[in-house]
Design goal:
Structural class: mainly alpha
Number of strands: 9
Strand content: 5-15%
Helix content: 55-70%
Length: 575
């Protein structure tokens, strides 16, 4: 046997394989591994921080649901919440991790999964370095670090959204069989956070823009597979509620609320809420990007003004290239845009959603003959951002954390802007443009420093929550020792999820009574009158409450007496 020849063939094949891996995959893998290492370190420290601070009511709700799914319920649950985040957590509960800390870790794991997806999604449009920076920006905006590890479903839902869009683009650009995964992931997105139903707009827009490339058969198989996934859940809801769509109806009723009291703690009718708080939400790295974009755009504009004749001629040529149909579309587009801006916040949010969907498609149809590269992807990300921006800007119940749903498209356009500016304002060393690498080095340094600072700030600003959890734990342990039959008693609390977890029993809710109104989301003015005290007393008596674990200072309850205090916790017992 000619071993030399055989060895030569093997060497040639290995060289070919290594060349292929080296050119196509190796650098991407290095950037992705580096990104995952950085983000994993940040996530690990954030989860440890949250373990030290303790749970928030919403995270307890998700975890007690996980206990139900794992067959280890404690008597309390909130099954109208989206189920999939709790279902994933229940897998670890079945493995023996029956601790509230489990949900913090699951939140962190799903986040890292999303960061990997963000890198892959950006890679469709950008190079490795640009995708790395985009993934790092997404992972380290202050609002992301605040929400990360809380045990909420927000970041998990964003992760599934990212992967859903990634597979959908692959299905249209590469192989339509990716629809088999894309739509099931879209369903998981919905089942992790119900208002992700709004993502149907960018999904349908992207399909519509690429309708000539769609394999209808595989599209239908993907949609069918996604609906098969929900059948077990519907059967579960039928068993629990006698109505397969009861939780969805509850979401629908809350998302269409038109009458909310200004006394509600989360009430804010300001439609510019997210714009006014934008710099705080994106932090130092985001502000630096905005500065670079504005400075670069100004410099490019000055260059264009110097070349004004050429710039003007290009605009005239492009307008003249439009046919009669395109010019009518342009006029119609301007009219619809005017209606959109005039009606924004003055009509039902769904009207604005539908109107912008039409605007986006008209714009695509108008510009497709201009051969603008990746216009369909640009519009996909734009509508992804706007469906949530419109909804949460118009909806009067606001929270900073709602912005996390908009972060991936914000990052996309930041990277797009940086990429375009670096391609137009080139700093060359030999034949290599170092503009974007320099920007990446600068931003990475800012990101690492600001992330460390943000984690310290989160710890300092949430120290009251740590103390509160400690007090609740002490109060719960005291009640367990005080009344050995407490599980057979009617116990009510303002923080019923937390006390349900600490007492391992069903603690029932006490809403806020304020000025003859009932609030379940807290109030701005926490000073209570005697009339408010009477309302509390009446509610507790009507429900035959035997213990009331209160966090409301200043209550004068005639049928209940305080028997123990732990910090801000007052334990009342029925007289």
């Amino acid at each position: 046997m000619n071993f030399e020849k055989l060895g030569g063939n093997i060497t040639n094949k290995n060289n070919y394989f290594m060349d292929f891996i080296g050119k196509k995959r190796f650098i991407s893998c290095i950037f992705l591994i580096l990104l995952v290492i950085i983000v994993s370190i940040i996530t690990y420290n954030r989860v440890l921080l949250q373990i030290d601070l303790g749970p928030i009511s919403d995270s307890v709700d998700y975890f007690t649901n996980a206990l139900v799914f794992a067959g280890q319920g404690i008597g309390y649950s909130d099954l109208i919440r989206p189920p999939f985040f709790s279902f994933i957590t229940s897998i670890f509960v079945r493995m023996g991790y029956v601790s509230i800390n489990t949900i913090f870790a699951v939140d962190g794991g799903l986040f890292i999964f999303g960061v990997i997806g963000m890198f892959m999604l950006l890679k469709i449009r950008f190079n490795d370095l640009e995708s790395f920076l985009g993934g790092l920006l997404y992972a380290t905006f202050p609002i992301i670090l605040v929400v990360l590890g809380l045990g909420f479903s927000d970041l998990g839902s964003v992760s599934f959204t990212i992967w859903s869009f990634y597979f959908m683009i692959l299905a249209i650009k590469n192989d339509s069989r990716w629809f088999y995964i894309a739509f099931p992931f879209a369903m998981l997105t919905f089942l992790t956070r119900y208002n992700n139903i709004l993502l149907i707009f960018p999904i349908f827009l992207y399909i519509l823009m690429n309708k000539d490339r769609i394999n209808i058969k595989n599209l239908c198989i993907g949609i069918g597979a996604s609906f098969l996934m929900i059948i077990p859940l519907l059967l579960f809801y039928y068993e629990k509620f006698g109505n397969i769509i009861y939780p969805f109806l509850n979401f629908g009723s809350t998302s269409t609320m038109v009458s909310v009291s200004a006394e509600n703690a989360s009430y804010d009718s300001n439609i510019f809420f997210f714009l006014q708080n934008f710099t705080g939400l994106v932090g130092p790295s985001g502000i630096t990007v905005l500065f670079i974009l504005l400075s670069g755009a100004l410099l490019i504009l000055i260059i264009k003004i110097i070349q004004k004749n050429k710039f003007k001629n290009n605009l005239v040529e492009r307008f003249n290239s439009l046919n009669r149909k395109n010019k009518i579309e342009l006029i119609f587009l301007i009219i619809l845009l005017t209606i959109f801006l005039e009606s924004f916040s003055k009509t039902f949010y769904m009207f604005s959603e539908l109107l912008f969907f039409v605007l986006a498609y008209l714009f695509y149809d108008l510009t497709k003959n201009l051969n603008i590269k990746n216009m369909d992807i640009h519009l996909l990300f734009l509508l992804w951002f706007l469906v949530f921006f419109i909804f949460h800007s118009i909806f009067v119940i606001k929270d900073y954390r709602y912005f996390v749903l908009m972060v991936p498209p914000v990052v996309y356009f930041m990277i797009l802007g940086l990429s375009e500016i670096s391609n137009r304002l080139k700093f060359m060393i030999k034949d290599y443009n170092i503009t974007f690498p320099l920007i990446t080095i600068l931003l990475t340094m800012i990101i690492l420093l600001s992330s460390a600072s943000e984690l310290s700030l989160i710890m300092e600003s949430n120290n009251d929550d740590k103390v509160a959890n400690h007090d609740m734990e002490l109060a719960s342990q005291w009640l367990v020792n005080y009344d050995l039959e407490y599980k057979n008693k009617n116990i009510y609390s303002d923080l019923w999820p937390n006390f349900s977890w600490y007492l391992k029993t069903n603690v029932k809710p006490v809403p806020v009574f304020k000025d003859n109104q009932v609030y379940y989301g807290g109030v701005k003015d926490k000073n209570f009158t005697q009339m408010d005290s009477k309302a509390y007393n009446k509610y507790l008596e009507a429900n035959n409450a035997e213990y009331y674990l209160s966090v409301r200072k200043g209550l004068n309850l005639t049928s209940y007496k305080p028997i123990k205090e732990f910090g801000f916790i007052i334990i009342y017992k029925k007289i």
